[in-house]
Amino acid sequence: MQSSRETWLVDVAATPVAVRVLPPGPMEVAVSGPAVSTPAPEEDAPASPDPMISLKDVRKVYRLRGGAQVRALDGLSLDVAPGTIHGIVGTSGAGKSTLVRCLTSLERPTQGRIRVAGQDMTSLSARQLREARRRIGMVFQHANLLDQRTTAQNIAYPLALAGVPRGQRRQTVERMLELVGLADRGASYPAQLSGGQKQRVGIARALADDPSVLLCDEPTSALDPETTRSILDLIRDVRDALGLTVIIITHEMSVVRQVCDAVSLLEAGRVVEGGRLEDVVLDTSSRLSREVVPLPAVPEAARSQGDAVLDVCVTAHPGEPAAVALMSMVAELGGDIASGVFETVGAAQIGRLAVTVPATQASRCVTALRQAGITAEVRA
Ligand SMILES: Nc1ncnc2c1ncn2[C@@H]1O[C@H](COP(=O)(O)OP(=O)(O)OP(=O)(O)O)[C@@H](O)[C@H]1O
């Protein structure tokens, strides 16, 4: 899935309003209905595959000195389909790190079941667990490379620990360096690499032992926006090339927009919202929807005294016209488009428009827009 961001302000002085809706491509804006749900599967539709990662009612209680308890995970359930990139977002203390530690069995959950690639991680012996952990590659905020070793030696390190013979190690390292775009930097030391290159080495090291799952904990938090974009592109490319299932823990919605197929919002140790990214965004009543594609600000100059602001959501799919219809409808209602934000999410463009109308006409306008199948509400 590829995403790009385009934010624009409509020139409020111009009439009729000119809206630059889409990046290059034969797309037009279509109007979204108030509630878009995933269509019911057709009778002969193939059954969805077993999840690659499945957590069922997972609880993790930390007992503090003095007897107090912290419920870090409190009945968390989550399924991640094979081959998807699944974002996990949540505020500080929501339980994201605890989730990572439980997934990799660095912590045992107090209760619940965790399956990765069909294996019940909570019932493995120590030896089986070591094997199972090799199926999960980890990428962290900082690559934490060994400074005294070259790039190639850093990538080879987990293979050496796993007892992989030297010749095979060398071949794998070459393949990994090629995969992450550092074929000519195998002999460089970490001090000779940029932050983005170090993270590439971290990704190569995580993939060297051929995992089926890549677990990324804030992989771009320490990087500038351009490097972030290239690292997220790399994560998507390696997912495509190797058929990996990827979990990305992040606090950055731009990461979710750019690379995730699905997203879950963690709060107080449980998943409170989530689903396919496009479905989540189209459900404008959800918090995640507004976090992933935020409501546009309305410049003071675009709002006359006595105006109300309506929040309107539109979706665009290739070949579905509606931009002109929407704009003429807003004009007919005596309104104006004050500002808007468009994001590409999967095959759709999701737009949020702030429409100004005389306050006395606000509820009439909302009713008219909704009758035309447009998601609209008065901004509080
Ligand atoms: N080892 C521990 N002992 C006691 N409490 C813990 C321990 N680890 C985490 N907690 C508590 O569990 C809750 C969840 O913490 P966790 O670190 O998983 O959250 P988080 O979402 O990763 O936060 P952040 O984004 O700030 O890293 C918090 O209340 C935290 O204080």
UniProtKB/TrEMBL annotation:
One Pfam family, short name: ABC_tran
Region span, Disordered: 32-52
Claim: Nucleotide-binding is one of the keywords in the record: yes
TM ranges: none
Gene3D superfamilies, sorted: P-loop containing nucleotide triphosphate hydrolases (3.40.50.300)
Keywords: Amino-acid transport, ATP-binding, Cell membrane, Membrane, Nucleotide-binding, Translocase, Transport
Gene Ontology molecular function terms on file: ATP binding
Sequence ranges assigned to domain ABC transporter in this UniProt record: 53-293
Highest taxon in the source lineage: Bacteria
PANTHER family recorded: AMINO ACID IMPORT ATP-BINDING PROTEIN, METHIONINE IMPORT ATP-BINDING PROTEIN METN
Protein name as annotated: ATP-binding cassette domain-containing protein
The organism of origin for this protein: Actinomyces lilanjuaniae
